[in-house]
Amino acid sequence: MKDIHLRSLYFSHVLSFTFLVLCTACQQESSHQPLPQNINEIGQDKPIDTILTLDEAQLLYEGGEAFLASNKRDSSLYYHEKALVLREKVGRNNRELFDSYIKVGRFYLQDFKYDVADKYYEKAQLIIRNFGVPVDDEINFLLDLTSIKTNLKDIPTAIAILNRLLNIVLVHRPNDKLTLGKIYHSTGNAYYTDSQFEKAILNCTKAAAYFGEIQDYMRLGVMFSTLGVIYSAMDENKNAIINYRKAIQNHLKWSEPESNQLAIVYLQKAFVHQEIGQFDSAQYYLQWNLRIRRKVYGEKDPNTFGAKFSLGKFYTSIGCYDSAVKYSQESLISLVKDFNDHNIRSNPIAGQTELNTDLVLGLVTKANALKNLSEHDLKKDYFDLSLNTYLLADSVFTIFRRNQRYDDPQLRELEMNYLPYHQMMELTFSLHKKSGNIYYLKKAIEIMEQSRAVLLESALNRARQYDTTGANTFNTDENTLIKQRSEILHQLSMINISEKRLDSLREELLSVDNSFSEWKKVIEKSNPNYFNLKYNQKTVNLEEIQSLLKDRNSILLEFLWSDKNIYALAIGGDTIKTKIIQQTDSFKVAYNNFVAQLQASPDESIKQENFDQYTYNANVLYQELINDLLPSNLDSNEDISLIISATGPMASIPFEALVTQMPQSNDVNYKLPYLIHRYPISYAYSTGILLKQSKSERDGNKLLALGFAGNGSSRVQRNNLSNLPGTEKEINSIRQVMKNNTNKYYLESEASETTFKKQAADFDIIHLAIHGVADSTNALKSKLVFRSEADTIEDSNLYAHELYTLNLNKLDLAVLSACESGIGKQQAGEGVMSIARGFAYAGCPSLVISLWKIDDRTSAQVMGNFYKYISAGDYLDFALAASKSEYIRGASEFNSHPAYWAAFLQIGDTRGIEAKMSNSKLSTLAFIILSIASLLIFFRWIRISRARMLD
User: Fold this and answer.
1) Distances, alpha carbon 21 to alpha carbons 326, 454, 920, in Å
2) In sequence order, which residues have a C-beta less than 8 Å from that of residue 764 and are 6 or more positions away?
3) DSSP 8-state code for residue 420
4) Contacts of 14 (CB under 8 A, 6+ apart)
5) Distances in Å between the alpha carbon of 849 and those of 294, 773, 777, 879, 899?
6) Dihedral pair phi/psi, residue 695, rounded to 5°
7) In 10 A of CB 144, how many CB atoms?
8) Which of 361, 750, 813, 928 would you label with 787, given CA atoms 20 to 30 Å apart?
9) Do residues 766 and 704 lie in contact, with contact meaning Cβ atoms separated by under 8 Å?
């Protein structure tokens, strides 16, 4: 099998490396010139004198060239950028400005920052179009530009530029075989990037012919290496090996036997040999790769780490676990600056661990090798060491995750699934079973916690209110950064955004993130108390969890989903149970059918076949996921509630719709013994978040409710989002039980996004009976849709990213009676990235969400009952369970199907909202008290007056 991640890790840079070798125009290196003493003062704010400014710019440009000749790239870029600023000030689209754009752009190109380079090259291209440049300069420029467009995946533009370039060369330099070879090579790269492999081979073969004619062995070697990569991608391994062999032969004609170019080819060739089972050859070339990397880069270098890491992965794949552990240990030594211990029982300590994702990969590879070694050699027990190595990798990776701010594109790193949490859980379960030590159960809880919602927990720390010296100043600075990010995120969520613009925005996002990281470092030094309160994450404490569960009389069920197994923990006030649920074929069938029937049209449920299938599947899942984890004496205890925290697909199913026992009758009747009749159920993003949410104060029941109902036309209705007439009934049913004069209810045109944004921060409860639109590919595009016909400020779409800048810390409860408010993109390590999660980010501790589109008349019934119970002070999970049960009792045998009622879930803190006396009652009471007091004062005054008269 291919090691897909490792191969793509190196192959993704082949085109970039090839470009740097073949396509970069020769740079004119100036001799090192002494810089003017006042060069740093050039370009400061002052009136523009065109001639003087151009002279200053030329001095800066020459300074940049001098630093470049001395291999001081950072200084060179600094002075070239200052020269560019001055030349742009003058505003002349001339040759000097063109040169500056190319100089600065090429720095970013060589650093693989293609989106940034593209900005400068596009500006340079405007100068070419308007004023022209010499043919040689245009050719070199276009070669650069095609590489940029290719790496930005803008293949049509790249091909168009290459065709234009080919025509220019055939007209002006038809015998320039070197440039023709470069063009065909670049064309081959573009087609390869677009997976048009046959066209890629055709063009690369033409390039090889031109390079062969002029005996340019360096370029010919790189050309054959590229052909090897293409054939490897096509799984034509025989042709791949032939071309790699040719690449080696040509590189040896011009380079030393231990050149970096050869190391790259050796590594690529080793991968192919490994895939076809030629392990001796694979090992030979991997060892050569390591030998060259050591010579070229030294022992302490990421390139040397990569060579050792490759060997560690190779030996793991062929079952040589001793060697796998050895090279994994060696790879850590190459990567971590102050770590030099060759003993495999040693790992870098916290202070030595650089923030490098390669370190995460190295630690995981070592942990895997230790686990495999222990399983295959009974004399070697490294299970504990393997677990500790996994945990160290997790702690390093968690730093990256917590540095991300929201559900944004930076989370794409998490999708690579660096950490195998399922293997970590398997280890802890096994070690606990073997030793009986509670330590391993505590570790299992920590791993469960790390596998979900780390970003959300970090955001909740931010959302808390702190009474700390300097907090207001810090918050102002932080909010400025947050606003900048929000604006970028808004642009990222726009429809039809180009790939080029997307990458550019990601670069801006990275810049803001870096600023935020630097800001945090300053805060940590200047005010550690504030920093610890706001940003330090504490390990989840088992005793604290069990204390909360005991107070709430609850059982926490945590599930970790993997491809083969589901790892489960059941934590009670005094107990912990574990279970590994195997995802057998029968389990997968039951699970998939259960989900499909919930999401299908309820009209199909009246069929006997569908009824039998639903009851069977729902009961199978109950037995596997719930029954075995609960103590047997719970059936008679009506006060127990369940808290569910799950990852993967299980994070989007309603457990309350599971059936606790098969029905006695075969008649189609969906008034079944659902789990919801037995226990109130709530859901938690993670245990740590639940603990934080449970500490928030409940202030009252001042409610803001908005409903989509109304007869007026609206822009959103023209986008196929129809009117929801049942929401008027829903809002009115809430109004009848929530009798507080400070409550606000809005329907029709008043139920706008502007109304929500202006008033949300002043209320304790928010109820939104509106449209919800989930996006399963881009969490930023999930949104709530308000009425819009009278809204001249907002666009009626409340996107997830907009919630991040709202202050909803006063909010006790958000009820999102909106379709699909609880579904979204499944994000590895986080869970479901939905619009509902945005409210949690904004500080709301309790949510009621919807998993799918539900009949608005049913919503009115369930929600009306829900508010009836919470207005009486009931816990939120009980209130929702009781309202669902009440609906089922009153519905027909068909409308009792879970598709009608099970979509609503309660997430977060379950505590009830204390009902405050309505304003009218308060006024009446105040009037009575005041009247009594007045009468008492009056009678006392009469008594005193009479006494004085008698005297």
Assistant:
1) 35, 42, 81
2) 698, 699, 700, 701, 702, 703, 810, 811, 812, 813, 913
3) -
4) 225, 226, 229, 264, 268
5) 56, 13, 20, 14, 15
6) -95, -5
7) 22
8) 813
9) yes
Q: How far is CA 242 from CA 211, 225, 269, in A?
A: 18, 10, 10
Residue 806, classed as helix, strand or coil, is coil
Amino acid at residue number 363: L
Angle of CA points 593, 598, 601, to nearest 5°: 110
Annotate 617-679 with three-state secondary structure. HHHHHHHHHCHHHCCHHHCCCCCCEEEEEECHHHHHCCHHHCECCCCCCCCCCCCCCEHHHHC
Q: What is the CA radius of gyration of the chain?
A: 34
Q: How far apart are CA 532 and CA 385, in angstroms?
A: 30
Q: Which residues of 737-760 are buried (b: 16+ CB within 10 A; e: fewer)?
A: bbebeebebbbbbbbbbbbbeeeb
Q: How many CB atoms lie within 10 A of CB 3?
A: 16
3-state DSSP assignment of residue 892: coil
CB-based contacts of 931, cutoff 8 Å, min separation 6: none
Q: Give me the count of residues in the chain.
A: 951
Running DSSP on this structure, what letter comes out for residue 170? Answer: H
SS (H, E, C) 586-604: HHHHHHHHHHHHHHCCHHH
Token pair 């590594």 in the structure block, residue = 267
- Of 901, 704, 907, the C-alpha closest to 811 is 704
Residue written as tokens 């996921």?
Answer: 625
Give the span between the Cα atoms of 62 and 64, in whole angstroms: 5
Bridge partners (DSSP) of residue 560 are 567
* Spatial distance between the Cα atoms of 687 and 691, rounded to a whole number of angstroms: 6
Interatomic CA distance for residues 705 and 837, integer angstroms: 19
Rounded distance between C-alpha atoms, residue 308 and residue 326, angstroms: 9
> Rounded distance, CA 203 to CA 362, Å?
38
pLDDT along the chain (951 residues), means of 10: 42 41 37 43 48 79 88 83 86 82 90 85 88 87 92 91 94 93 94 94 96 94 95 94 96 90 94 95 96 92 92 95 96 90 90 67 94 91 95 80 46 54 93 94 90 55 39 57 64 56 68 75 66 57 91 93 92 92 94 88 82 94 93 68 89 91 89 94 87 75 72 41 66 81 78 81 83 59 67 67 70 77 43 61 81 78 89 91 94 90 90 56 50 60 56 50
**pTM > 0.85: yes or no:** no
Residue 458's CB: how many other CB atoms inside 10 A? 21
Q: Which H or E run includes 357?
A: helix 357-376
Q: What sign has the CA pseudo-torsion 560, 561, 565, 570?
A: positive
